[in-house]
Amino acid sequence: MAAADKPLDFLWFIPSSGDGAYLGSDELARPADPGYFREIARAVDRLGYSGVLIPTGVACEESFILAADLAAHTEQLKFLVAIRPGVASPAYYARLTSTLDRVSNGRLLLNIVVGGSAQELAGDGIFLPHDERYAHADEFFQVFNGLIENGKAHLDGKYIQAHNAELGLPPVQSPRPPIYFGGSSDAAIDFSAGIIDKYLTWGEPPAQVAEKVEKVKRAAAAKGRQVSFGIRLHFIVRETDEEAWAAADRLISRLSDETIAAAQEVFAKNSDSVGQARMVALHQGRRDKLEVSPNLWAGIGLVRSGAGTALVGSPKTIAARLREYQEIGIDTVIASGYPHLEEAYRVSELLFPEIGLAGPRNQIRSSFGKRQVFGGGGHGGNVRVASGS
Questions:
Q1: What is the tens place of the pLDDT at every residue in 88-122?
Q2: Rounded to whole angstroms, what are the CA distances from 339 to 78, 80, 99, 241, 318?
Q3: CA distance 296 to 305
Q4: The domain that contains 71 carries what CATH number?
Q5: Rounded to an integer, what distance in angstroms lies between the CA atom of residue 189 and that of residue 273?
Q6: β-bridge partners, 334
Q7: Count of structural domains, the chain
Q8: Within the chain, which residues score under 50 in pLDDT?
Q9: Domain-located, residue 189
Q10: Domain range for 234
Q11: Alpha carbon distance 318, 115 (integer Å)
Q12: Tally: H helices and E strands in the chain
């Protein structure tokens, strides 16, 4: 079945470095708070999302530990957590992976993050140049996959030495949890083609995503493999297109030109990520060039590193844009919106019906079959639909 013929696998995002209603402002901001992350996780578990991405980085809570906490407060939600080669040994990551998959009863997904900030990598003790980081990651996963799939690994490599390593307890998922990865450089794509299950792209215009998908397909085929594809996007969905665009404007209404310039300077100075460069090229730091493709808005990327684009519009409009990505081969969406708790409800309630997703799970019936109209929550409860409605 082609990707466009079946519903998307739809994940949400845990904003583990903090959240807010306005980009570039401390007004109505929400600090990083484990209690708030649990609120989001419980909500999206009930609202019908299949999983959540937990980010990684110096400003974020550690993804494996946060996932373990959230797994205890959810029922079906899966957790896409980061493996960062070089931050810890492949044997240690194998033990983390096995344990988290076991305690969550098989709800773990793995996200390879090699890293795009030389400054942050140096703080972690990693000083390899860009392309060489992927050669290191290749050796890392030779050991990691041997352990997680078979319980044993041995390598005397250029970067990784693991002599007769063993893993005592296997993960629930066999042969291992699925592996996701996003990277736009030639070195990243060549590395990923032999290892990953799902390739992720940030939200570029459909034509650029199509070029990347074909490039990854060719690289995987050259190694005798097939991969599937996902996209990382923000969403601003409202009942009408006009309301959605007004919400987009509101999101950056407290954002100053000085803050934009400072953020763009940091991206240019500290990042050697090809994907980040592609994001910046979409808007070039300018407020007047933000709709980079129909309904694809780059305002978030003015100050946010990584995924910087949002689909903006009514449910029907956004559903049409998503079908364009599905025609390319995208079968998974990792979504977010600001603030993440409220926007998780909007996307589920407004967009899910348009794209064939079921929405809230395990809803308890609220009537004996008669259609009801919300009556404001008074003592009398709901009211019956007026005759002829």
A1: 999 999 999 999 999 999 999 999 999 767 778 88
A2: 21, 20, 32, 19, 19
A3: 17
A4: 3.20.20.30
A5: 13
A6: 11, 232
A7: 1
A8: 389
A9: yes
A10: 3-384
A11: 31
A12: 12, 17
